[in-house]
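Standup, Tuesday
Yesterday: got the pipeline producing structure tokens again.
Today: sanity-check two examples.
Blockers: none.

Example 1:
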Amino acid sequence: MVKNDLKVALRKYFGFDSFKGKQEAIITNVLDGKNTFVIMPTGGGKSMCYQLPALISEGTAIIVSPLIALMKNQVDAIRNVSENEAVAHFLNSSLSKTEITRVKKDIQDGVTKLLYVAPESLTKQENVDFLTSVSISFFAIDEAHCISEWGHDFRPEYRRLREIFEKISNVPIIALTATATPKVQYDIQKNLNMLDAVVFKSSFNRDNLYYEIRPKRDVEKQIIKYIRTKEGKSGIIYCLSRKKVEELTELLQVNGINALAYHAGLDANTRANHQDMFLMEEASVIVATIAFGMGIDKPDVRYVIHHDIPKSLESYYQETGRAGRDGGEGECVTFYSYKDIEKLEKFLQGKPLAEQEIGKQLLNEIVSYSETSVCRRKFILHYFGENFDEKECNSFCDNCKHPREKSEGQEEVVLLLKALIELQETQKAKHYCSFLAGNLTSDIKTYKHDALKGFGSGKHKDEHFWNAVIRQVIVAGFISKDIETYGTLKITDEGHLFLQNPSSFKLIKEHDYSSDDEEDAGVTLSGKGAAFDDVLYGLLVDLRKSISKQKNIPPFVIFQEPSLKDMCFQYPITLDELTNIQGVGTGKAARYGAPFVALIEQYVEDNEIERPQDMVVKSLVNKSGLKVQLIQNIDRKLPLEDIGKAQGKSMDEVLEELEAIVSSGTRVNINYYIDDILDPENQKEIFDYFREAETDDLKDAYHEFDGDYSEEELRLMRIRFMSELAN
């Protein structure tokens, strides 16, 4: 087909006047009947590379796709560019017999140009027999990295595709993926028996994406604060577990964020509905496991947050690639803690040894990426076999935006390269770190490496430092990791040249996310960093005193000290905001709150205080079901010990729970229980004490009564007192 005809077809079906990147060359190659391998980042226009040739070729193109949601999305998109609904179909387990019959008829009539199938559907003999009887234009494999054991989403059924294709028809294959390291690329081509394929590899650089790693502390609060700065914009949050997806979605909803959950545990209708609501902008945030987003064609996702670190750099690249597909703003913020890596390592246990080794190797790469101080863009692109000059990053990653200090590292690089030679390039990174630092590990003893000249030659630095040197020397191209031997380090030709003629090598100080005081830890939102307002505290204490005199009740009944202190951090100026304050429930806010919020509002205005409102994060009432159950059981007058036993709590924990309930403004009646252990005169004596007391401190009460009453009896009476007077 001549170029002009292709352009006419592009205009007719998709409304574009020109192709993007290498699309035209790829489409021409497919139409010429040649095997084609496309490696193109998310948002680069991969699907066009098989959709357009399918629409203008004789017969039906078979598109292998891993997810039902993805197929539905693609089929809907293709039907929109054609006058005939039957132009595209999918064939998978979600269809009824009647629907399957209709799909087959449309293919036989030559109307269907694209048939999307899951690899499982292709293996069914009845489908193979049917497809053998019709005209096939070509096979396309979307998400082709699923073929490779080294791919981040390996699917064993993908390994059988070649033999099934051969049974059906001898037509060309186009394999497409958004992520492929050189190793994965070779693995895919070899498995599909298409080493003869013309390879089209686009740059993996997404220059509109901003990459940032933050230490995982106060993560939910950080996420809420971040989303509040993105009002009206769409975002995706990835979590590793379904449970975390559910919890985080609920927390976001409680905080007024229009979020929906998406994971494989939801029924198909709910999933499809949530996906559609996100696409139609009825929800601004999707909280998802990695089951979401493969092929979700929403061009204006403005941010992707990883609550948990992904299992590999490929997954990370693929998932962050959902942001800014239209070329506009796209921020990728990831929360990292080494504890998450340890969790992921546990998941690998029990798997075949080779799979464990591959999994660990992929985890090592994501750790290196997270902890590195090198330009993140440079690091990612190096991983995918592409060179990149960090000057072109334009501060579009946290490491380039906030560069860390550099020091001369020529001597250390030489020591490292010599160590590789001395150990005959047989070890992985961890072993070299121990060897250089002079740490006598069991492996070093086993290999007798402590007897070698270079053992401890770098003991002026620790293993963390040597790990950082290895990462930076790999990115510089002096060392490579041998994938076949699961990450053994080898010196490259450039490394040998450096050893012969050493020159300056600047080492960047690495991040250390193991400690809690990372100097550039991002923003913490606990309010702990904010300055305590002594002046306001004094005013609130005076106000509380005057109200307590007026109502003839002790000051602590109104608001306890921790509540007043929290007001001096958060500056609540409405009753609704007051309920975010520690120990203040809706009842207490309604009863005593008005004069306090009026005073704070005036104070904020007079002193032009910028309130940290975005730091106010409502938390989910933890175990709220158990609290309701506790109150219901008290209403049924059950003994407190029995209530505790039923909930797996000690008496002490039950009393703590009750103290929290009454201090936040809910009334509970435990008189039935107190009547069994204290007679009326004793109750009155303790009640009157709390009425006159300056403080609700139990130690003071205990000493006042010279130990006549136990701490538990005093606690129970204090709960009753607070319940009756404060609420």
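Example 2:
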Amino acid sequence: MSSDYSAQNIQVLKGLEAVRKRPGMYIGTTGIDGLHHLVYEVVDNSVDEAMQGHCDTILVVLEGNDVVRVEDNGRGIPVDIHPTEQVSALELVMTRLHAGGKFDKKSYKVSGGLHGVGVSVVNALSEWCEAFVHSEGKIHTQRYRLGVAEGPAAETSAAGLPYHAGRPERRGTVIRWKADASIFESTTYNFDALSNRLRELAFLNKGLCITIRDERLSHPKVHEFKFDGGVKSFVEYLNESKTVLHKEPIFFEGSREDPAQGTVEVECAIQYNDGFNEIMYSFVNDINTREGGTHLVGFKSALTRTLNEFLKKSKQAKKLDEALSGDDVREGLTAVLSVKVPNPQFEGQTKGKLGNSEVKGMVESLTNEQLELFFDQHPDVISHILEKSVLAAKARIAARAARDATRRKNAMDSAGLPGKLADCSEKDPALCELFIVEGDSAGGSAKGGRDRRFQAILALFGKMLNVEKTRIEKVVTNEKLQPIIASIGAGCGSEFDAARIRYHKIIIMADADVDGSHIRTLLLTFFYRYMTALIERGHVYLAMPPLYKISYEKKTFYAYDDAEKDRILSASGRNPEKVAVQRYKGLGEMNPGQLWETTMDPRRRSIIQVHMDDAVEAERIFSTLMGELVAPRREFIEENALMVSNLDV
């Protein structure tokens, strides 16, 4: 028996040591998402004050030197001495895990922060942190270093504050911190990413004003968000670039009582458009439940059942031999569901999925009741929705037949793989790469230059279908998309199964020109709409082929942009007359060796991983750029062309 493992090997982490030791357990990652999570934790505390009716203004400031400040006009964290811990409540909240006012439901009936770890985690993962409390005409402050208080909370004057103190009667909390660079991969905040999340919070809390100001710029950038329409305004925002079937969103709100849970409040807005995609966002206590949960199951069940009941009484019933499915009734649906639950049970600290079983029935009964009432009073709206749902059902049935035909065809082919695919010999998906290459010429070079052990090549020809403008039955039968679906091997649309993905790196390799950009966009639209998990799991990449080949004295250099070309050309000692510069017009101009060396060799290549940091903004961009309406797309192009022009200047 080994004797080198004893009691002295057991560590006891005190205070916030556990957070610093394993930050990923508390904020998910130490990348940019984790860095932004710090801001969200502090802002969520302020929003909790707003949900109780004690706060209507929140300010987020990105100061210089990677410092962030969050201010609110809530009640302020208590600064009196805790009766049993004998330190100020402020110090407890800032330096102790599981210390907060959200456990007994007296101070906060509902809240997003449940575990009492939010602001203390921010403090733990900061090089330094400061808290300021304005209350009863006084200002109290405390400073911390690496999560440890440098001294007790003490009263201070307005003169020494690192921000404008405001009126003497001001109240609220100000948290200011600098993230620890030894923990995070980067401490540079993304203004746009933060803005998108703050906009979302403003939608969910009607009347709440949230402002973000970027003071890192010579001319500070400011976004102010305030929406008196709440989730109704949210749905209208999401549908800005779409043609809607009914002008006003369907909005309802209400509550249900539960002996154990208490009062559960439900707020929902829905609006149909003439597109083919479902846009559904669900929230619990302002937390985005990206993985859904019982509240979303209840809403979907009620919507499907209600529309099927109205279908039985309509003329549309004769056009369909089977009931509408959930996918049928949600085609073209944009919906935002927000529930307030006193004692939510989330799956994990990231709170991605609600688990309370009782919430399903409460949301389902309320949704069913409110939708029946609305549709009885608005027969024209339900008529348009049923007409669209029946067409969706017919398309689903046609798509099912097309899939069955494809499967029968593949069953006759032992491999079941498209002829354009040059597969690799490796069978472990985690080690395999699929290059989707534009054109037969480039495909030939890629096949010749690849490492056959783990790199597969799928050559495409011509531009593919814009899936934003068509239904699923056209997608599964499209001759340019079928090879992609078959090669990836995980199905498509509602049948997509991420566990069956044959390659964990799917690399789009297109020419560095306008046509290449268009093909990349069409492919990304397809993946986003019909294989969303590919992007969510980080399986999609963009190849970065060079723009220039520069030859000088029997040496070859590759430049991936104009700036790099200029740097190479301006290198000392080079005679311009002896330098040959070749501008690649397409991938097909490279021989297999050059393509491998510059674009495919894992040791030397540059590839960009496609992320979806903000689902709301991703939805709006795809709808704007690839949808039917021309005006929003023209406006986007004009705005961004002007921005690029200004950057060039």
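Quick observation on example 2: The longest helix spans residues 379-412. Residues 17-225 form a domain with the Heat Shock Protein 90 fold (CATH 3.30.565.10).
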